[in-house]
Amino acid sequence: MDFLKPRLTPMNRRRRIYEGKAKVLYEGPEPGTLIQHFKDDATAFNAKKHQVIDGKGVLNNRISEYIFQHLNNIGVPTHFIRRLNMREQLIKEVEIIPLEVVVRNVAAGSLSTRLGIEEGTQLPRSIIEFYYKNDALNDPMVSEEHITAFGWASPQEIDDIMALAIRVNDFLSGLFLGVGIRLVDFKMETGRLWEGDLMRIVVADEISPDSCRLWDVKSSDKMDKDRFRRDLGGLVEAYTEVARRLGIMQENDAARSAGPQLVQ
Fold first, then answer.
1. pLDDT, tens digit, for every residue of 147-202?
2. Strand, helix or coil at 199?
3. 96-216: what fold?
4. Mind telling me which residue stretches traverse the membrane in this protein (predicted)?
């Protein structure tokens, strides 16, 4: 699948702002903007496990673009402006809140381990958890008391974040269910977007199979980064199937050997 291979871009002419495990942020073309570049790096367990998987960044860029565009269209504020190419997006510069917001619909992963709930158990209602973003501490779970006491976010901001999380969960659950995928849980990041003297909380970072647990409705096959975490293999194939079901990809049945083509 040559379309998933990395392509050389003149990134050395841009000023690098930040590099994370899966993305790089560069200075944008206009004040208040950044360019978000998706890498092919796959990491798990706070980068203790690492591998470069050709094509992952392209797929995450396209899937995240699709989701953020739809969130913008239904009035959920995000940092997303537009996609620039197969690996990059133009985004609004925001002040990232140092919290990972995890919304859980089905018991899986650390929730199953912590509470002894069998993986796959439907939760009585969606549960929202907060984790402090700190790799050195393994992103510990924190309470609203911790968040306000240490000044990571105000009580009003927490209310705004939770309202966003519920709206995003409702949207994603319906979106994926419509294409035969069960949204088990997902991770969301938020940031403060300043517009003059006004500030609002927006959805930031990415929403992709890297940050969601996605199971096929019929088979319960995993279609997310658990394929890497658990050494199941087939990560690119699973992400490609998610993109295909969402209508992001086109398949030419007469030329399957050339691989599917991404819709431009």
1. 999 999 999 999 999 999 999 999 999 999 999 999 999 999 999 999 999 999 99
2. strand
3. D-amino Acid Aminotransferase; Chain A, domain 1 (3.30.470)
4. none
